[in-house]
Structures are given as structure tokens and as C-alpha cells.
Write a structure and sequence with these properties.
The structure holds 2 protein chains of 2 kinds. By secondary structure, chain A is α/β, with parallel strands linked by helices. Chain A is built from 46 helices and 17 strands. A 5-stranded parallel beta sheet of chain A has the order 2-3-4-1-5, sandwiched between helices. The chains are: A alpha/beta, B alpha/beta. At the A-B interface, helix 6, helix 9, helix 11, helix 12 and helix 17 of A face helix 1, helix 2, helix 3, helix 4 and helix 5 of B.
């Protein structure tokens, strides 16, 4: 998307914006669709005295006259512009993406390079510091980066890098005594070790040739006096290239240490010799003698003997005699002239070498080949050259961009401008300014630290207008001091404000604000719930504007725990107090209240869900919510300020309007007003305890009646925690409660969690449910359980870690129940965060931000229990396991009628039968279970059932059952493989920390199943009478049990049987009134999902016939 | 001397473990790419993070077009960093180009590395006879032309392609870091990468490697992982990630981290 001109102009200084306007004008004149960098260049050149023109003039290096070259340049630009397609355009051709990218780059560049002076200016003016206006100079530099522009300049005989240099360096009046281009780039001399940073490397930096990189490395290795084996796909190329270089160049490529080294290749001789099968030993001997002679003669660095491609030596067709003869000759030579002779060869793959070694194990020691990996065929430069001569003009020389006088930046400014946050930078600058005032040197030379003095001189020459001598004297000490300051502040910044070293300027600022926000989260939330009239967002904005310094924020954090126990003594008039210490106290106080507030109304849900009433109507005062306030409110509970409610509210709103720093105070006041109203009946903790306990227990029992023991334990734990007992976290009182449900009954756990959310936080909306075992996995979409959306997290998971998801939800709903299923499957990150949360009360997300978990109830579930807890007091092996039920599919049901199979009817007067296609352990399950059923009969029945199914054919797949169920049982038992090694210890530690570990009994599905069968039997007899037999498919059974387990109402499944199934039976009876004996079957339509769901239960609303 | 390099390449050490882990980012990203992997390891490892010299977060002036013509210069940087930090043994996780850098570094200093984990690694991107690297020379030239013509358009097209999986946040992040690179440097580095060929030297790597390959990676075909496994000199394993894209640490950190942990503990 092209950018609008007006938008782009915002990023530019006036000067640069004028250029942009000109460029737009050029584009419009030529009726181009977009304004590109080329247009900008054209506009720049059109100005008679532009920076660019000036820079071009100075960087000109060709022999022809400047007028001519400018003419050529203008022509080239013109031609390139002509090539652009023209179209009907608007008044202002928008800015092309590439030009916009250039502007953004220059912005970044300028930020990186900007000296402190600029930064200071920005800060002093308190402008929006984030919009850094791009200066013309930087704008031009970025435009020159654009490949198209470089090409155009290249065509005209300019090198864009030269022009860039000229742009950076304004004309120097008196000649500087160093040549820019010849100085090595900083990286070589300053940043790395001596080996790499040889500034006067003997390799000529101009006239680079093909594969020079490889040659250089080979030469370097030779300097070390090693025998070389070049290894890599392009190794032989590199070897040949090197030989060529050395021999044609007269050794010019070699470093001085080994200059004059001669290189002899015996590759041809070797191949010849070996191909003849080693018959011609004399010739080889002769060659070796010749070499020996040469070696004796030679002085200086010696001789390198290339044996060429190693592959020639390992060819399997070779006679081993010839090869070993050759090898021994070479070895002999090498031994004879240890100092003078070096071997060199190449091979494409390592395997060749190892094969060679396999044949001549002694070689490794005798030849002592040093392997030099060759990894690239050509240097990238070469590619540019080969592809387009134009490209060559811009890229390879881009590196020259980093020339000496430009080098000050990397050494100091990177670290400084990036790692410090806004505030610290500002403070740092203040100090610097103060320091500079003391000395006579101006700010301008701050950034010349670390530079050799001659570079400083150059820097100053370039127009800073400072006396050179002075800088030389004062500069160094001053710079050292400034650097010290810089370090100090950036250290400080990192430590205190936790700025990420690489986070950008505005980012870290945003972070800091976020931290402040967190600190005031309590206030924010409280306000939301107490006033109910202001949206949370607006509040956040308010506190963002808060004039609180970060320091205060830090204090707040520290003070919270300490001041928690301070009784509240501030009376309601304190809103006028705005000194900091008070603020802190207030804030901590409000936090504490906040923490307690959810607890004092467990019995009066309506009030919790309608918090606005608290402030607007005084009738609330009569509510008997006296719970959990403890001593904290005792001191203020008697304050008769209820009538002032309206007043406070006014204050409160008023403050919101203009001074949000007082917000905390006014907020806590209005809050305080509510408190007494609800505290009218202070009572002892014990009293509260028992009532609380009973209410929770009663509510839970209604929903999840089968888990009586667990409910008992849960209610006890909650009431205990709320009363402030039972915490094992030191002296500080925390509002969060941690429960762990172990054992079976997934649905029961979920229901209880949901109920807790409803009882304690007013609505089951306040339940955050995350299943930790689902990470990365796929949830079967056809499950019965899917239709209830059990796992919020799964849906919104994409692209988020589970920790971040939880953190997000926590901050959204600071008062809620967080249900974490399968906590034993938590990934490492989640483990960390959870553990931190349970120990410190703060839940960190993956970015390290912490969300307070005060007021939260954490419910973690796990199917495995820890330690010696015997959580499976199984009376008997259950017929239906939880896993079977969880695997229930949400399929349409169907009634089939077919002729009775032999002997299947009327057995023992039972008319309902479940056909079970499960494994051998469980089989036929009839109503009024005959405990004596023996195995053979089961088998028989099982088979008997199969037959009719086959007849039906269409809806059943007989191949599946056995394996499938086996799979089920396997996955059912907690697979400990997936649990990483320290996960178990973590789980143990974690369970040790929670407030209560509650054991859940397995749900008795068999009993439920029997109940359901009984109900169905009644319905069936109503429709068909007692002489017919009903067979219920096992899958249908499981589906019904699952649905019943899930349903919120207690009699949901009974209702369904009566309404839906009963109707189905009646319809079926009407359809088939044959007198022939038949069997009625209730089966699933495999693969056909329920489309129309019955109310209140996950079962179909009608049965197919 | 050393500290300057550490500063220039933004070297950071985080975490408090005894074992040392180096996380090296690949082409087009910077160390922030590891941000979402980090928390999984900070407890048990001291993690060294640094930026390749070509990364956008490094001052482009450090990029010496004469020096960084092959991967060896990057290897020098890595080894210099490790030496400056006085690391005597570490595990190394390298993504794309850094995986290759890690391989080369381990050849030069095998004692320094206890384990290499290679994410989206390829010894050679170009096809050859008997080798499928995924790219034809002509394709690559087209890509380069596209980069030259309009860098931004190229980035906008390339980022989603590379990320692969449909994770907008990762695409955004990758485009951001790609944009941070100066176009000419990007072009130059990609030429360096595409010209390098490590096939011959894989046998020299004696450090055990773990190759992490996603199920679909536009830059690295699955056969390459197999090629690496068979040719690497140390014992190596291949881990298949059930996600798509070249940047699993950006697009699927929760999936990648456990695999990394497992690989590191072996």
C-alpha cells in the first residue's frame, strides 16, 4: 500500500519535506502512479545548490568534466523515470513503498546516530519524542541505499558510496591529512582479535578477484606452516584457483611471511602414473628426484606441493601397489624436507579422506594434513559482478560507508540510546549538561570519546566549529566522565526499570507505564466494580496520565507487603492529601481492601454482581455482609459516613477529571464508604467461618452431589483461607486460594470450579478454564464434550503460549476462578509461572510482566495424585471407565427394528439389553445385573449381537472396536513418558504449596447407566409393551451417560428420555405394527453428528427412525 | 578488544544455570526471535544471546563487505564472543544460517561444543545433481532481482512464506526484523548464504547434532534433514516438529521448547 504524501511528510523536517514535495511534483508532472526514490533524486538534482548536487561534485572521480558528468547523471535519471509506467494519477501521487521504507530507515538511522544534543532538544521540548523528524541529510543517505538509485548513479559513473560519504562530510576547508578510503573499517581494527584485524593486510583491498576469500584463507593457513587438505564441494576449484593466483601473480597474493613461496602441482603426474597402473615407476622416480633437487636448491619459504584431488588416490580400480608406492615416495619427500616442503590437496567430501585414511592409517601422522573447510564457491561480490555490471557499483562498496570519522557511533551510541529508557536518558543528559557547563567544552564533542585523537580532530574539523587544541586537552578526560555517567545511567536503568537491552526507546517507556498500571490495577478494578459507570479503558487512560514517577511505583511495590498489616486510619477527608507517602499508604490500603472485598459477600451474591448499587443507594447498608473483614475494617467500620456517599462519589468523579494522581486516594475513600455499610454487623472469624462453610457446601452439593467428601474438604479449605488461617506463606496475608483436585471425575471438578466462580465471584462467567494437556494437540471435534466448550484456551490458543493466555485472562478478570486442568501436563513455562504464582502471589507471563493473583481462586486438577495419597479406593473394577465416557461421540441416534434373532428374546423377562462391543473384560451389561453371568454366555451374546449388525451394515463398522478401545485404555492411564524429567518433582513441590489437595472419587458411571436403562425401560414398555426386546448400542449408552454427567440440571437426562426417546419409541411403534416378533435397537448413526440439540443436554432433539 | 565486539553484537547473557546455552538467530531475524523460547531455559541455563553482524539491530556500519564474504567471518565472530566470555563448553542452538555457522565453529573448535541443535538448517540451498536443496540457481537470481527492485514488497511477500504457519504475530515480528536490515546487506548476506556449500565438510563435525525440521519449510526440504543426518560425523538425530514454517521459534515456541529441552538433555 502506498502511503499518502501528507502522512510521509510528518516524518520529515521542513527541509526534507520540501524535497519530498518537489519529488511528488515530479511524479505528478510525469503522471506516474507513485512517488519513488528516483523522483526524489530528480527533485534533489533539480535544485541548483542541493546537498546532493554538492556531494556529487565532490565525490566525482572520473576524468571527464563535472558538467558532463552531471549531464550524464540527469540523463540517466531522466531515462529511468521515463521507463516507469505512467497512468492517470491523483493530485498527489502517493509515496511508494520503497521510498517510505527509505524514510523509515533514515529515521532509524538518525535515531541511532543522533547525538545527545538532539535527544536533549527533543526531551526538553516535551514534544512527542517518538516522531523523530528525518533530516535532509539522512533522508538522502537512505535514498542512496535504494538499489535503483544506486544503479542510476552507477550508470552515470558515480559511486553511491562516495556520494554518501560526501553527504556525511560537509566540505572541509583545510585539507585533512588522511585519506578516507584507505583507512580500514573500524570492525577490523577495533572490534576483533589481532589476527582478523590486521589493518595492513597484504591483500590488496581493491581489484578483488574471483574466489579471493578462499585464496586468502589458504594463504593464511600456509603461513602457519601446515600441510593442507581443502575440504568442501568447491575445494578443487579453490585449489586450482589458488595455484593459478600464486603462479601467475608471481606470489603477489601471498602474505609477506611466505612471499616467494613456489607452488608445484604434481596432480597430472600422479593421475598419469596411477592410470598406467603404476607400471612406469621410473618416470615417477624421476619426478620425485627432480623435486628433491629443487628442494635442496630452494631457499626462503619453501615449496608447496599440490597432489590435487584426493579422490584420485582412493580410486578402487587402482592397484594398491602403485598407490602405496606413490604415498611412500611423498612421505619420504616430506620427511626429508620438513621445513621446506608442504603438501596440499583437495577433496569434495570428507568420506574420501576417511577412506584414504583407512587405507593408509599412517598418513594421518606422516602427512599431518590440516583440514581447511571451503564453504563457498564464489564470493558474493563476484556474483554481483557476473550478473550485472551496474550492481557492482553500489553493493560491494557499501562497506566503505563505515569510514573513520563516522566510527564514533558504534562504540558508544548504540549502547546508550537503546538501552536506556526515556527517564534515565533525560536524567543522564541533565547530568551531562551540568557537567559540561562546568567545563569550557560544548556538548558537541561528547560523542568523540574512544576516538584516537587524530580522528577527533577530523571530527571537529567537519564543522563543529570547535578549537582543536582545546578538545584535545579537555576532551579526553571529559569524555571519560561522560562515558562513566552513561554507564551509570544505563546500569541504573536496567536494574531499576528492567528495560530490555534491546527494546527500543518508546517501548521501554511503554513498559514502564505498564508497570505503573499494574501497580494500580487494584485501584482500577476496584473502581470498576464500585462505580460500574466508568469503563475500565477510560480508567487505564487516566492512570497512564498519572504524574507518578517510576520511583514511586517501585516504592508501591515494595510497600504493599509491609503495609498490609497496618490498620486503616485515614479518614474520609484525606482526598486533599497529595504527598507521596500518603499516596503509598493509601494505595496499599486500597489493595488490601481489594483483596478482602470479594470475601465479605459470599452469601449475598446479588450485591456482588450489582456493585453500582453500593454507591448509589444507601439501602445496601442493611445487607448482612460481615465476612472476612477481620481487624482491618474494624477500625473504620463504625465511621458513620454512609450518608456522605453521594459526596464522595462526586469527589471521586471530580478527581478523575483532572488529577489522576489523587485517584488512588479518592478511590479508596469511596471504597471505604462501602466498607462500613457492609460491616454493620462485625462478628468473629469463627462465626463467619461456619456460615461460609455451610453455604459453599450447600451450593456445591446441589450441583455435584456425588462428591460429598471432596465438597466438604473444598468448603472447609475456602472458608479457612478466607478467614486468614491456614496460610503457610509467612506473615503476609494473601487473598488467593489454591486448590488442587486430584483423582477422577473431570466433569465434577469442572462443575465445582464453575460453582465456586458463581458463589464467590457472582457469576460463572468468572471462570477461566484452561486445559494444559491440550497444548499443541488437537481436540477431537466430534466429542460430546465439545458441545459444551470445555476449554476456552484451546480456541484462542493460536500464536499464544498458554502462560500468556492465562496472564491475559487474569488481568481481564482479576476476580475469578482459574481452572487449570491436567496441571501435571503443564509445560515448563507454565510450571514456572504457576510455581511463582503459588509462592509469591504474582503470575508472570512470558515477557516477565507479573499479574497479581490476589483474590483469585486457583483450581488445578490432575488425574494423578501425588505421594502416598490413595486416591483410588476402588471397590471393584468399574465397567465403565471415565476414559470411555470422555471418548463419547456426539452422534445422531436411530431406532432400528428387525426380526428377532434366535433365542434373543424375552430372556428372564428383561426387555432392555445393552450390546457392548468392548473388550473382553466388560461385555454384556443387562439391566438388574446378574452377578453370576459367566464368560461363555457373554461371548455368545457378543457374537449374537454382531450378526444383526452385519445385516444392518450401513451404520456400523465392525473392524474398529477392539483396537480402538485398547487405544483408549492405553491413553487413559496417565502416560508418564510425556512428562519431562523434572516435571514430577515440580508437581510434588507445587502440590506442597497449595492450600488444599482435594481427592475426587471416580464417578459411578455404572450406577448412572443403570438408572438410565431403567428410565428407558419404562419408556420402552409404555410404547411397545413388555414382550418386545430393546437393544441399546453401547455407544448410545456411553453418549447418554456422558451427556447426563455433563448436564447442569439434575434430571436432564430423565427428561430427555421421556420427551425425546419416548416419542421416538411411540413413532417407531406406530410405524411397525407387525405382529411378528422383532427386536428394537437404539443405535448411533456413525459419522452423522447431532444437528439439532435437545434443550439442556448434549443429546439429539429427535431420534431417527 | 573483546568487550567492543560484545557491545557491537549486543551480546547478552541471561539466566542463572550452570550449563551454557548459545542461541544464535538466523537470517532476517535478530536475538529477539528467541524471546519466547528464553523463559523455558533461563532457570537451568546461562543463555548467551547475540546478533549476527548482518542483523538489523546491529549498526550497519559494522558490516564490512570485504570481511563477511563467507560464513567463516561469522564463525570468527561467534568464537570471539565465546572466548571473550571465557566459555569453555556450551550447547549451541542455531537457526538457519547460524546452524551452518555452528557446524563450522564446531569443526574448528570441537571441544567447545557439547551439542549442536540445528533448526531449519541446510548445508546447501541450491539444487545439485544428486542433491535437492530446494532452490534452482535461476529461482534465486529472480529472488535477488525482486529484492533489488522493491525491498519492501519482497519482505512483505517473503515473511508470511517463511513463517509458514498462520501466525500473524510471528509474521509481523519477522517482517519487522527483516525491515531492520539494510537492503544491500540483506542482499549481500543472502548471496553469501546461497553460495555456501557445506556438504563436503559435514563429516568433520564430530559434535552430536540434533536436527529440528518442521513438517513444511519453504527454505529447507525434508530431504535435507535426512541428508544432514546421514552425513554429519557425530551421532545426530532428527526431530520433526508438527508445525509449518522456517521459524518455529517464532511461530510455535510452545512446541519447539520441549523438543529443545529434550534434545539438550540427551
Amino acid at each position: 500500500m502506498p502511503t499518502l504524501v501528507s502522512l510521509a511528510r510528518q516524518f520529515l523536517t521542513d527541509e526534507a519535506a520540501r524535497v519530498l514535495d518537489d519529488a511528488v511534483a515530479v511524479a505528478r508532472r510525469r503522471s506516474h502512479a507513485q512517488t519513488t526514490s528516483l523522483h526524489a533524486v530528480s527533485a534533489l538534482l533539480a535544485l541548483p545548490s542541493s546537498i546532493l548536487r554538492d556531494a556529487c561534485a565532490r565525490s566525482r572521480n572520473s576524468a571527464c568534466s563535472s558538467r558532463l558528468q552531471f549531464g550524464a547523471l540527469e540523463l540517466c535519471v531522466g531515462v529511468s523515470l521515463d521507463r516507469l509506467p505512467s497512468s492517470k494519477t491523483a493530485d498527489e501521487p502517493p509515496i511508494s513503498n520503497s521510498l517510505m521504507a527509505a524514510i523509515k530507515r533514515s529515521q532509524a538511522n538518525q535515531r541511532r546516530h543522533s547525538d545527545n544534543f538532539q535527544l536533549q532538544q527533543i526531551h526538553c521540548n516535551q514534544q512527542a519524542a517518538s516522531v523523530l523528524k528525518v533530516e535532509l541529510k539522512h533522508f538522502i543517505l537512505s535514498i542512496m541505499d535504494d538499489p535503483i538509485v544506486s544503479r542510476v548513479f552507477g550508470e552515470a559513473g558515480f559511486r553511491s558510496c562516495d556520494i554518501k560519504l560526501a553527504v556525511i562530510h560537509p566540505p572541509v576547508t583545510h585539507a585533512s591529512n588522511f585519506s578516507r578510503t584507505r583507512c580500514p573499517p573500524v570492525f577490523l581494527c577495533n572490534l576483533t582479535g589481532s589476527e582478523l584485524g590486521r589493518p595492513d593486510s597484504s591483500f590488496p583491498s581493491s581489484g578483488r578477484e574471483d574466489g579471493e576469500e578462499n585464496c586468502r584463507r589458504i594463504a593464511e593457513a600456509l603461513v602457519k606452516g601446515k600441510n593442507l587438505l581443502l575440504l568442501g564441494a568447491c575445494a578443487s576449484d579453490a585449489l586450482n584457483r589458488f595455484i593459478e593466483c600464486v603462479n601467475t601473480d608471481g606470489g603477489g597474493i601471498l602474505p609477506t611471511e611466505i612471499a616467494g613461496l613456489s607452488l608445484i602441482s604434481v596432480e597430472k603426474e600422479i593421475i598419469e602414473f596411477l592410470s598406467e597402473g603404476g607400471n612406469n615407476r621410473e618416470k615417477m622416480d624421476f619426478k620425485v628426484e627432480e623435486l628433491r633437487h629443487k628442494l635442496e636448491q630452494c631457499s626462503g619459504p619453501g615449496i608447496v606441493l599440490s597432489f590435487g584431488e584426493l579422490k584420485a588416490l582412493v580410486d578402487e580400480k587402482l592397484s594398491s601397489g602403485a598407490l602405496s608406492y606413490l604415498v611412500s615416495k611423498l612421505t619420504g619427500l616430506l620427511e626429508g624436507f620438513k621445513d621446506k616442503l608442504r603438501l596440499m590437496g583437495a577433496t569434495a567430501v570428507y568420506e574420501t579422506y576417511s577412506k584414504f585414511l583407512g587405507e593408509f592409517p599412517a598418513i594421518e601422522k606422516d602427512w599431518d594434513l590440516h583440514i581447511l573447510p571451503i564453504t563457498s564457491s564464489k564470493s558474493p561480490i563476484d556474483c554481483f559482478g557476473s550478473k550485472s555490471s551496474l550492481m557492482g557499483s553500489f553493493v560491494p562498496f557499501g562497506g566503505f560507508f563505515s569510514t573513520p570519522s563516522d566510527l564514533k557511533y558504534p562504540l558508544c551510541n548504540v549502547a546508550q540510546s537503546i538501552t536506556q529508557c526515556h527517564l534515565c536518558t533525560a536524567k543522564y543528559e541533565q547530568e551531562v549538561t551540568a557537567m559540561l557547563k562546568g567545563s569550557t567544552v560544548s556538548i558537541a564533542d561528547q560523542y568523540s570519546e574512544n576516538l584516537p585523537s587524530w580522528l577527533q580532530m577530523a571530527q571537529l574539523d567537519t564543522g563543529k566549529g570547535l578549537d582543536v587544541a582545546k578538545t584535545k586537552n579537555d576532551g579526553t578526560t571529559l569524555n571519560a566522565r561522560i562515558l562513566g555517567l552513561q554507564r551509570k545511567w544505563s546500569d541504573f536503568c536496567q536494574r531499576i526499570h528492567r528495560a530490555q537491552p534491546f527494546s527500543k526507546f518508546d517501548v521501554s517507556q511503554g513498559r514502564a507505564q505498564a508497570l505503573v498500571l499494574e501497580g494500580f490495577q487494584y485501584v482500577a478494578d476496584r473502581k470498576e466494580s464500585s462505580s460500574g459507570s466508568c469503563s475500565r479503558d477510560s480508567l487505564l487512560n487516566e492512570s497512564q496520565c498519572a504524574n507518578l514517577s517510576l520511583g514511586v511505583h517501585m516504592d508501591l511495590q515494595n510497600d504493599f507487603p509491609k503495609r498490609n498489616s497496618i490498620p486503616i486510619t485515614v479518614d474520609s477527608e484525606t482526598e486533599n492529601v497529595n504527598c507521596q507517602s500518603k499516596l503509598i499508604k493509601e494505595a496499599s490500603k486500597s489493595q488490601q481492601k481489594e483483596k478482602d472485598s470479594p470475601w465479605f459477600t459470599p452469601l449475598t451474591l446479588p450485591n456482588m454482581s450489582l456493585p453500582a448499587d453500593h454507591t448509589s443507594s444507601s439501602s445496601v447498608t442493611s445487607v448482612t455482609t460481615d465476612l472476612g473483614l477481620g481487624t482491618i475494617f474494624a477500625s473504620c467500620s463504625r465511621r458513620p459516613n454512609t450518608p456522605k456517599l453521594g459526596d464522595h462519589r462526586e469527589h471521586y468523579q471530580h478527581f478523575l477529571g483532572f488529577n489522576s494522581s489523587k485517584f488512588g486516594i479518592s478511590e479508596s475513600n469511596s471504597h471505604q464508604v462501602i466498607q462500613p455499610s457492609s460491616c454493620s454487623n462485625p462478628s468473629s472469624g469463627e462465626h463467619f467461618d461456619s456460615r461460609d462453610y455451610k453455604s459453599i457446601k450447600k451450593a456445591l452439593n446441589e450441583k455435584v452431589g456425588w462428591q460429598e467428601d471432596a465438597i466438604c474438604a473444598i468448603s472447609q479449605a475456602i472458608s479457612r483461607c478466607k478467614a486468614g488461617y491456614g496460610r503457610h506463606r509467612g506473615s503476609t496475608v494473601r487473598g488467593d486460594i489454591w486448590l488442587t483436585f486430584v483423582g477422577h471425575d473431570k466433569v465434577g471438578k469442572k462443575k465445582i470450579a464453575s460453582m465456586l466462580a458463581e458463589i464467590i465471584f457472582g457469576s460463572h462467567e468468572n471462570l477461566i478454564s484452561v486445559d494444559l494437556s491440550f497444548q499443541g494437540g488437537v481436540n477431537p471435534s466430534d466429542s460430546v464434550f465439545e458441545c459444551q466448550e470445555l476449554n476456552d484456551y484451546d480456541v484462542k490458543f493460536r500464536g499464544k503460549t498458554v502462560v500468556d493466555y492465562i496472564a491475559m485472562e487474569l488481568s481481564k478478570k482479576p476476580q475469578s476462578v482459574l481452572l487449570l486442568e491436567n496441571v501435571d501436563k503443564a509445560d515448563f513455562l507454565a510450571q514456572n509461572s504457576l510455581f511463582q504464582a503459588v509462592t509469591t502471589g504474582k503470575f508472570p507471563d512470558s515477557h516477565g510482566r507479573e499479574i497479581s493473583t490476589n483474590n483469585m481462586i486457583f483450581v488445578t486438577t490432575s488425574t494423578i495424585g501425588m505421594g502416598n495419597t490413595n486416591f483410588q479406593p476402588l471397590k471393584e473394577p468399574v465397567k465403565l471407565s471415565e476414559e470411555d465416557i470422555l471418548g463419547a461421540k456426539n452422534w445422531q441416534m436411530q431406532i432400528l427394528i428387525e426380526h428377532a434373532a434366535e433365542g434373543a428374546s424375552g430372556s428372564n423377562g428383561r426387555n432392555v439389553k445393552i450390546s457392548r462391543k468392548v473388550t473382553s473384560t466388560t461385555s454384556v451389561n443387562k439391566r438388574k445385573l446378574e452377578g453370576t453371568t459367566n464368560f461363555t454366555e457373554q461371548e455368545l451374546n457378543y457374537k449374537a449381537k454382531k450378526l444383526p449388525h452385519k445385516v444392518l451394515g450401513s451404520s456400523l463398522d465392525l473392524n474398529l472396536p477392539v483396537e480402538e478401545t485398547e487405544d483408549n485404555t492405553n491413553s487413559g492411564c496417565c502416560d508418564s513418558d510425556s512428562i519431562s524429567e523434572n516435571s514430577e518433582t515440580w508437581l510434588e513441590d507445587f502440590f506442597d504449596q497449595v492450600d488444599e489437595k482435594v481427592l475426587f472419587k471416580p464417578f459411578d458411571f455404572d450406577a448412572l447407566g443403570e438408572k438410565i436403562v431403567m428410565e428407558i425401560s419404562i419408556q420402552f414398555q409404555k410404547a411397545f409393551g413388555s414382550e418386545f426386546l430393546l437393544e441399546i448400542d453401547d455407544e448410545v449408552m456411553v453418549q447418554m451417560i456422558a451427556a447426563s454427567w455433563l448436564s447442569a440440571r439434575s434430571r436432564a437426562v430423565e427428561d430427555w428420555i421421556e420427551r425425546v426417546l419416548g416419542r421416538g419409541f411411540t413413532e417407531a411403534r406406530q410405524k411397525y405394527h407387525s405382529n411378528v416378533k422383532y427386536v428394537v435397537k437404539l443405535v448411533t448413526c456413525r459419522g452423522l453428528f447431532v444437528e439439532d440439540q435437545a434443550a439442556g443436554i448434549c443429546l439429539p432433539s429427535r431420534i431417527n427412525l | 578488544m573483546g568487550t567492543n565486539l560484545l557491545e557491537a553484537l549486543n551480546v547478552r547473557v541471561v539466566g542463572s544455570g550452570e550449563k551454557i546455552l548459545v542461541l544464535a538467530h538466523g537470517f532476517g531475524t535478530d536475538q529477539s526471535a528467541w524471546q519466547r523460547i528464553l523463559p523455558f531455559f533461563t532457570q537451568n541455563y546461562s543463555i548467551i544471546l547475540y546478533d549476527l553482524v548482518c542483523a538489523g539491530s546491529v549498526n550497519p556500519d559494522h558490516f564490512d563487505f570485504e570481511r563477511y564474504t563467507s560464513l567463516h567471518a561469522y564463525v570468527d565472530d561467534l568464537l570471539n564472543i565465546l572466548d571473550a566470555l571465557r566459555v569453555d563448553r556450551c550447547s549451541y542452538v542455531g537457526h538457519s544460517v547460524s546452524a551452518m555457522v555452528g557446524l563450522l565453529a564446531s569443526i574448528r573448535r570441537p571441544e567447545l561444543f557439547s551439542k549442536l541443535i540445528l533448526i531449519g538448517a541446510s548445508p546447501r540451498f541450491l539444487n545439485d545433481k544428486d542433491y535437492h536443496g530446494g532452490f534452482e540457481r535461476a529461482d534465486i537470481e529472480n529472488v535477488f532481482v525482486a529484492m533489488e527492485a522493491n525491498y519492501e514488497a519482497w519482505v512483505n511477500g517473503f515473511a508470511p512464506l517463511a513463517v509458514g504457519a498462520d501466525v500473524p504475530a510471528a509474521v509481523r515480528e519477522f517482517s519487522r526484523t527483516l525491515f531492520n536490515m539494510r537492503p544491500d546487506i540483506t542482499l549481500f548476506v543472502s548471496r553469501t548464504v546461497f553460495n555456501s556449500d557445506l556438504r563436503g565438510i559435514l563429516g568433520l563435525v564430530k559434535v552430536p547434532c540434533c536436527i529440528i525440521q518442521t513438517s513444511k519449510d519453504v527454505s529447507v526440504p525434508a530431504s535435507v534433514a535426512e541428508y544432514l543426518k546421514t552425513h554429519l560425523g557425530g551421532g545426530s538425530t532428527v526431530e520433526l516438529l508438527r508445525t509449518e514454517g522456517h521459524l518455529p521459534h517464532l511461530s510455535a515456541p510452545a512446541l519447539l521448547a520441549p523438543v529443545l529441552r529434550r534434545a539438550l538433555s540427551r
